[in-house]
Amino acid sequence: MKPPAFAYRAPESLQEALSLLADHGDEAKVLAGGQSLIPLLSLRLARPTVLVDLARIPGMASISESDGWLVMGSMVREGHAERAPLVGRLAPLLSAALPFIGHPAIRSRGTVGGSLAHADPAAELPAVALATDAQLVATSAARGKRTLPAADFFRGFFETALETDEILTEIRLPPLSEGTGVCFQEVARRHGDFAMVGLAASVRLANGTIADAHLALTGVAPQPIRASEAELALIGASPTKAVFEEAGQLATRGLTPPSDLHGSSGYRTVVAQVLVRRALRVAALKAGADYEELDSGRGDLR
Ligand SMILES: Cc1cc2nc3c(=O)[nH]c(=O)nc-3n(C[C@H](O)[C@H](O)[C@H](O)COP(=O)(O)OP(=O)(O)OC[C@H]3O[C@@H](n4cnc5c(N)ncnc54)[C@H](O)[C@@H]3O)c2cc1C
């Protein structure tokens, strides 16, 4: 199908883009990489009368470091972030997740901000934002800038805290503490498909025990979720198979993942448990856990 008719605007400054959003309210939609919005228009699942293209606004695709934080403009293309050495150094969990998004052609257009603002329940980057305690900066003409923790940003099925007159302008990822290992894992039907279940994980070890753990699941709920109960149980524990097995159980307690023709709710639950065990193992090894101690005992976590 062809998209319904719309006016196309390509402002050359952020101020101009914000004014357009303020003037047109929910009739307007921001266009970033177009990898999700254009298909929605073609299927007539979205019918904005004005598209506000962010591509010509200078300064929205920069990647920099500030006090150890990774600071990215929302128009950074996924492929650019994937190849940027600074992202690899400051935000290895983001680097680990990016190659799972679609295919190189999609990542060459799709933007980091677009993926977060779109908030697909099976997308990788919202889980990374949640697991890293990212801060998301929203800007509007009327109220200026406000900074939202990722935990407050994702509100539900394709729903975020962004107001209709706001643009997500910046994404900030805090520095990783020393002794932290990270891992992103997912199960999809084919490489490049949206995840059936995905997991962004980090583990910090201090004196051989777990000092901190972050686990964010995608594909199991209307929005990405932190496995807080499992995270709490991990703190102070030794990185062992039994502990990670238990964390997998705790991470899925009370969850009812969606069922569809690709997999039942029960199947997704088991996949989530397996991913938690596997990702914790990899992250703990990267954090310096003892390989033999971690792998001693019964079972196979690989
Ligand atoms: C074949 C295919 C496979 C894909 N596979 C995956 C996958 O495996 N995993 C995955 O996560 N994604 C996947 N995607 C989606 C891809 O990652 C998109 O790039 C991303 O979801 C949206 O980013 P975008 O820049 O293209 O945004 P757009 O499509 O331009 O916009 C998406 C939505 O976000 C809003 N928006 C965008 N930027 C902003 C902003 N800065 N401020 C406020 N609102 C904004 C738009 O108004 C729109 O509602 C796939 C896409 C395709 C076509």
Detail the topology: elements first, then pairings.
Blueprint: E1 7-9, H1 14-24, E2 28-31, H2 37-42, E3 50-53, E4 63-66, E5 69-73, H3 78-83, H4 85-90, H5 92-97, H6 104-109, H7 112-118, H8 124-131, E6 135-140, E7 144-149, H9 150-153, E8 154-156, E9 159-160, E10 166-173, E11 180-187, E12 197-206, E13 209-218, E14 225-226, H10 228-234, H11 241-252, H12 265-286, H13 291-295
Parallel strand pairs: 1-3, 2-3
Antiparallel strand pairs: 4-5, 5-10, 6-7, 6-10, 8-9, 11-12, 12-13, 13-14
Helix pairs in contact: 10-11, 11-12
How would you characterize this protein structure?
This protein is of the alpha+beta class and 302 residues long. It folds into three domains: 7-53, Uridine Diphospho-n-acetylenolpyruvylglucosamine Reductase, domain 2; 63-173, 2-Layer Sandwich (Uridine Diphospho-n-acetylenolpyruvylglucosamine Reductase, domain 3), CATH 3.30.465; 180-295, Enolase-like, domain 1 (2-Layer Sandwich), CATH 3.30.390. It has helices spanning 14-24, 37-42, 78-83, 85-90, 92-97, 104-109, 112-118, 124-131, 150-153, 228-234, 241-252, 265-286, 291-295, and strands spanning 7-9, 28-31, 50-53, 63-66, 69-73, 135-140, 144-149, 154-156, 159-160, 166-173, 180-187, 197-206, 209-218, 225-226. The strands form four sheets. A five-stranded antiparallel sheet has the order 4-5-10-6-7. A four-stranded antiparallel sheet has the order 11-12-13-14. Strands 1-3-2 form a three-stranded parallel sheet, covered by helices on one side. A hairpin with a 6-residue loop joins strand 13 and strand 14. It is globular, with a radius of gyration of 20 Å. Bound molecules: flavin-adenine dinucleotide.
